[in-house]
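Hi C.,

You asked whether I'd gotten around to modeling the 74-residue construct. I have! Everything is below, sequence then structure, no commentary in between.
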Amino acid sequence: MHASATFDSALSPAFEPVSIPVRELLPWAIFGSILLLLAIYFVGVEEGAAAIFNTMYVHEFVHDGRHLLGFPCH
């Protein structure tokens, strides 16, 4: 057995990549987008007149994230 034969079999791919149809990916993309928008709401908007919750618990929980993302809060 030659050394080149050993390296040739090691470099050849063992499987072919499978393409994922958009119709299977779309529900997950929508779900991820909804989660992202919800997170942005709680970090960026949940304060003051537009708040869903009347307490400051959500604001204090995401306070450092607000500053990290550039949202002013005080």
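If it helps when you're writing up: The chain has four helices and no strands.

Thanks,
B.
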